[in-house]
Amino acid sequence: MPGQDYQGAERFLPASEADLGAVASAAGSCRGCDLFERATQTVFGSGPAPASMMLIGEQPGDAEDRQGKPFVGPAGRVLSQALADVGVPAEGTYITNAVKHFRWREDPRGGKRRIHERPSPWQVRACMPWLGAEIERVSPRLLVTLGATAGQALFGSSFRVGAQRGGRLTWRPPAETTASDLPSELVVVPTIHPSAVLRADDRDAVYAGLAADLRAAALVLGDTG
Ligand code: URA
Ligand code: SF4
Fold this sequence. Notes:
By secondary structure, the protein is an alpha/beta fold. It is built from eight helices and seven strands. α3 packs across α8 (203-224). The protein is globular and about 45 Å long. Uracil binds next to α3.
């Protein structure tokens, strides 16, 4: 945490010439914040590079922490289905998270289950250099943020999913993450986190909303392609 030994991911980044594989392996030994201490492993992004669409979640969940890949658990299944429904197969997209280690707490009822805990704003900031390094190397034309944490990672604490989902926002990569061939602005379409579908009373309606937002995202690619 701030004031202790953790100073963010910046000093673990490899040189700017490093390719995505080298960045991923450097992220494997990141100690930029306290989250590596209790997680199994770093969960870096996955997918083709370059890719026109990059999807950004919050952080790995229990299944991702064990398997080392993003969105391989229940939320990932919802997301893959919704992408397929709107004609954007998940395999064609690059998928990652704002935070690369699983933050969890013990089950207060004494069970073995590890309970997801939202990363703090400080942890999200600490991890941003990895996301910047991925964006530089994947060179997407469009970012899709899934849920509040990913939206706030890009736009700060005033970002609200409910108000901004499905619309087109503009994100300017910070100067220090701007590779020469990266556009100075990227289109972002925010949507809800796919796990919201799993928690909802009316799953069908929430799923339809997610799919509608992803359809709006797919249209951006049609318009700018
Ligand atoms: N939720 C996320 O935000 N990311 C994952 O990788 C899995 C679940
Ligand atoms: Fe590094 Fe991010 Fe993991 Fe923190 S969460 S240790 S900044 S990779």
